[in-house]
UniProtKB/TrEMBL annotation, chains A, B:
This is Soluble hydrogenase 42 kDa subunit. Substrate binds at residue 332. Keywords: Aminotransferase, Oxidoreductase, Pyridoxal phosphate, Transferase. Residues 26-323 form the Aminotransferase class V domain. GO terms for biological process: glycine biosynthetic process, by transamination of glyoxylate. Its cofactor is pyridoxal 5'-phosphate. Its EC number is 1.12.-.-. PROSITE patterns: AA_TRANSFER_CLASS_5. Pfam families: Aminotran_5 (PF00266). It comes from the Bacteria. InterPro entries: Aminotrans_V_dom, Aminotrans_V_PyrdxlP_BS, PyrdxlP-dep_Trfase, PyrdxlP-dep_Trfase_major, PyrdxlP-dep_Trfase_small, SP_NH2Trfase/AEP_transaminase. GO terms for molecular function: alanine-glyoxylate transaminase activity; L-serine-pyruvate transaminase activity; oxidoreductase activity. Belongs to the class-V pyridoxal-phosphate-dependent aminotransferase family.
């Protein structure tokens, strides 16, 4: 059976990138590889829309999230976390683990955050050293107003702004420098269309001051080591060579497409799914739906876990179920990775078929028609 | 742009087969390779539904067609060709090239053949040494009654039955032994889901008598050389090693799926396209449409050549145009190769979109709906 991945990571990898990675492995301390690394880092700066340093870490997204915490904070520091789902909560856990004090603004799962609340909190607690937010909360398919939060934090000279961009970067608009993001975290297995295994973090000048003064113990994730090695486009530890080779190729493709185009493509796919679902009577979970991941609320009485496993079994389609409190209630579809408009049509057809199997009657093609109108402007 | 191949060969190759072929090349005269070849030949016998010899030729389908002519005929022999399109005509050209005399029954492009006409011709011209027919005529998407023709030829002890199964084998029912086919020709780039480059021919006992008595000059395609080498599962000339490795893998997949299932799958896809086209007012070209390839007549005034090139340019979808007298008038879609039900939906959506672009207004999703009903029995 043909496989189609719509999970919000891992995603399908384009053939040209797979082929690039299938080439014989080269040693990570050769001029040949360092040139590849240099090109990859330059590509990442475009992808991040930044002139700041961007580092590659051999580890998955959580490693880069952890790097932001252990480099920017010192034990005992107070940090504000904007949390509206599983990955906001992960920042809270990381901050507690390193004996810092999280101040949490809970927007509620699927809700946008109230910017005035952030401003008030920072005004009332000037000792807050960092603000942690999420570009796209994968667990709920929610987008946050990162630009708005960045403006607020930028007015606080002693506070840095950290963003988890793992699930959103490349899929939704995000401008590191213009939006005053001091540390932006991302991973390979999302809009970069790569296998999982490497992650990234950008660091602003303002953030470097924090890092240089931090008293947090750290070794593998010590960004000062990365900075020193990066002077020669090298890495402090053995790098995942194959993935960096794929990264360069993937970033080349992205540069050619243009980052604004990429955002536009994801916007259209997400709108297509939204309209398709509306036409068959299904709602999105989020009140501020992202263009990277869409969470769809299933009709009452349908078990989302079984729905997902049947989608995989019957149609070879991997869609994600709900996490934690959404388990069994929603299905989640990513719009990134190696997929195109006809894959969006395929997954909508698959959902229609599966709904019928579960007794929720849908005239086949109803959602597909609405999606086609959006995807191809007819 | 993501690529989707619906051309009637070459087709998309499954990832597991591509990976198998990406392995380091082994020498073609090693025990390791000869074992792979043995397994491939055994798989081919299942694919052909035969206990006869089946040979692999390093060359495309036309090489195996030529092998049938130069091995089974002697100069001056009379041979009957059932021709209803470009590939029937190719047999005529081959037969003439080798100084044999073709007797041609022209069914007319897209029409089935009248079996009584074949029977009468063989009765009236008992000197006819061989009958050449086509399982599926790719140029028109037409299926022929091979079983019926085989029954007629089997009653003539001095006449052998040769079938070009290149575009049909694996996609439509074909039973070499039960249907009295003395030589069946096939190629790698169709329902076997492999890249082009190797072809196959089965030879019955009755056909061996012809071959052993043939006075035709031949060397690379001399099947006696292949027979001798095959005793040790070897080849008389250097074999396309990588393709045979892929062939074994592909035949393994087919064995697992079951050949009858495979026929059923193609039948459903072809019916889905037929119903979809009917729902938007388009007819099939053939009066006896095959389940391997469907030829669709475009509305008056639409240039089929441009339509195909736009499908490729706009949607990354390769569909074939018409050949010879059908150039510009039809588009042709294969149902074989690495594609599934959702790809069938995709190509129908693509055709709907392209028709709209060309001013033939179709409510998007109309054909998709009909296809979904057939493909998923809802």
């Amino acid at each position: 059976m043909k496989k189609r991945l719509f999970t919000p990571g891992p995603i399908s990898v384009p053939e040209d990138v797979l082929l690039e990675m299938a080439k014989p492995i080269i040693h990570h301390r050769t001029p040949e590889f360092l040139q590849i690394a240099q090109q990859a880092v330059e590509g990442l700066k475009y992808f991040f829309q930044t002139k700041n340093d961007v580092f590659i870490i051999a580890g998955s997204g959580t490693a880069a999230m952890e790097a932001s915490v252990v480099n920017l904070l010192s034990p005992g520091d107070k940090a504000l976390v904007i949390s509206g789902g599983k990955f906001g909560e992960r920042f809270v856990e990381l901050i507690k683990t390193y004996n810092c004090e999280p101040v949490v603004i809970e927007s509620g799962w699927g809700n946008p955050v109230d910017l005035r609340l952030i401003e008030d909190t920072l005004n009332n607690q000037p000792e807050i050293k960092a603000v942690f937010a999420t570009l796209v909360e994968t667990s709920t398919g929610t987008s946050y107003d990162i630009k708005g939060i960045g403006e607020i934090v930028s007015r606080k000279p002693e506070t840095v702004f950290v963003v988890d961009g793992i699930s959103g970067l490349g899929a939704v608009e995000c401008r590191t420098d213009q939006w005053n993001i001091d540390a932006l975290v991302s991973g390979s297995q999302k809009a970069l269309s790569l296998p999982p295994g490497i992650s990234f973090i950008s660091i602003s000048e303002k953030a470097w001051t924090k890092i240089n003064n931090s008293k947090m113990p750290r070794y593998y994730l010590n960004l000062k080591k990365y900075k020193k090695a990066m002077e020669k486009f090298d890495f402090p530890f053995t790098m995942a060579v194959g993935l960096v080779v794929g990264l360069r190729k993937s970033l080349e493709n992205i540069k050619q497409e243009g980052i604004e185009n990429l955002w536009q493509i994801h916007r259209r796919r997400a709108l297509a799914v939204k309209n398709a679902m509306a036409s068959i009577g299904l709602n999105l979970f989020s009140k501020s739906p992202s263009d990277a991941v869409t969470a769809i609320v299933l009709p009452e009485g349908i078990d989302g876990e079984k729905f997902c496993s049947d989608m995989r079994k019957d149609f070879g389609m991997s869609v994600a179920g709900g996490q934690d409190k959404l388990k069994g209630k929603v299905i989640r579809i990513s719009h990134f990775g190696y997929q195109d408009e006809f894959d969006t049509i395929a997954v909508i057809a698959g959902i229609e078929l599966m709904l019928n199997k579960y007794g929720y009657k849908v005239e086949p093609g109803t959602g597909v028609r609405e999606a086609m109108k959006v995807l191809f402007s007819i």
